[in-house]
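Hi everyone, sorry if this is the wrong subforum. Our group has a chain we'd like a structural model of before ordering constructs, and none of us has done structure prediction before. Sequence below.
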Amino acid sequence: MLFEILEKKELGTSGIVFEMVVLTPLIAKKAFAGNFILLRINETGERFPLTIADYDREKGTITIIFQVVGKSTKLLSHLEVGDTILDVVGPLGNEIHIKKYEYPVVIIGGGVGIAPCYPQAKELKEAGNKIISILGARNTGLLFWKDRMSSVSDELIICTDDGSEGIKGVVTVPLTEIMKREKISIVIAIGPLIMMKFVALTTKGSDDLPKVKTFVSLNTIMIDGTGMCGGCRFSTLEGGVQFACVDGPDVDGHIVDFNNLLKRANRFIDQEKESLECYDEECRALEKHKSEAT
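Answer:
Right subforum, don't worry. Here is the predicted structure as tokens:
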């Protein structure tokens, strides 16, 4: 079965963030907030994970958001409406625990992590919770889905590193202010590892701030998505090992050894750079051949 792309659009103004709606009837039927998929574009492609950003059970579709950072995501960005993806496996991972909490829920999305925040905010809002959402990005060009997040949030706060929109600064600044002004039941943070690390440090508790239960979403390197390959393993501060694909992807942020995980996340950076450079060279050669042929 091939998985057809029904919609595609560029998000923001960066030119590197894309939204796709893909026909996946069986996956859409069972998807919940917190789930992810593994996809392979073609027979020679690698398997890589993307969190399910939205789903429509009636239409049989899921929505994925991705940022072009390497060969596979660049190849995915070149696909158009009507094209197909060879493999889409899911829904994988654990759905988040949806219930009515006593105090507000703070949901923090950084960069492309904004996308998986939406289904979590939507399902938690439907359960009767007060939702405070914080969206962060390097600049306004990388922000997206503000309207969607606003529709499921009681309060929406925007942060940009350069101050081009909202608060100038990182997401922990408004988070700290919220924690000082009112009680919070849980914090959910999805985005770059460094962002999630400092959110977890902020909510771990101090003389000035209370400890708040915090979940982070680990979108690590994965191959099989069943815990057998070990590519997505991460160390805990207690000295144990967990696997993002089967124990997560949402896990207790206060137990993650982020320093170790940040090192592991960069272990293939040279190979990824080389792969992208080779792909770009192949594309330039192909374009030159087409130009000379015409």
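For your construct planning: Residues 269-293 form the longest helix (25 residues). The chain has nine helices and 17 strands.
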